Amino acid sequence: MKPTERFSNRVDNYVKYRPTYPAALLQFMQQVFALRQHSPIADVGAGTGILTALLLQDGYEVFAVEPNDNMRQSANQQLSHFEHFHSINGSGEATTLPNGSVDLVTVAQAFHWLQPDKARQEFLRILKPGGHIALIWNLRTTHTPFEQAFEDIKQKYGHNYTGIRKSHDPELKGFFGDLGLAEKTFTHSMRMDLPALKGQLLSSSFMPLETDPTFVNVMEELEAAFAQYQENGLVTITYDTKLHYNP
Q1: Whole-model pTM?
Q2: CA angle, residues 151, 157, 158, in degrees to nearest 5
Q3: Residues 6/26, Cβ–Cβ less than 8 Å
Q4: What CATH fold (topology level) applies to the domain 11-140+163-189+238-245?
Q5: Residues 205 and 158 sit within 8 Å (Cβ to Cβ)
Q6: Which tens digits make up the pLDDT trace of 49-100?
Q7: I need a surface site. Which of 45, 59, 72, 90 has the fewest CB within 10 A?
Q8: Are strands 127-140 and 235-245 parallel, antiparallel or unpaired?
Q9: Domain residues of the chain, as ranges?
């Protein structure tokens, strides 16, 4: 399936159950990138607008660039009431934005869908002089028995899971090049009941859906892991939120 189509049948779960980003990340970007009220930001691969919403709430002007029609429409429905929200049918390689038009380009949980060389060229084109690129990932930890069990299910049943999950650290130095590269890590977590846990699992593009013959096995193993490790009907998923940027 093409990257621009992979999430079309997962939008509802994506909106409801994907993790957001910690407030400390937004505060750090505001300080380090010297962002001002209504600073223009291109949120590339914006999806359903998880990061876009946080940027808008902080008062920035956000151009949400997303090639998937269903995800972009979902973002439109949720965020169109923001005066400084702009929905863009574009991609990381072709944003359609003018030259030198934004202070910051963000890519949250979407860098692996980009063609790095073409995206870098496009980001540099649309950035103002002295602008910044911020690549962001929510990376699940495996510090607890439940988190490891959840990871094991994804590894066992996810289609090309290792290819999508792989670390991008080796290619980031080349991507940023002479811009320089810095990194900062933040931590946050989610408490989830069983329906939310199922929804989050099914929001991942690599996990089998109901039509897949392994779907029943996935749900059985997920329910067993939840039953074993839940406390008061909830489990905790912790994330290391990693930010890579040019200082």
Answers
A1: 0.88
A2: 75
A3: no
A4: Rossmann fold (3.40.50)
A5: no
A6: 999 999 999 999 999 999 999 999 999 999 999 999 999 999 999 999 999 9
A7: 59
A8: antiparallel
A9: 11-140+163-189+238-245
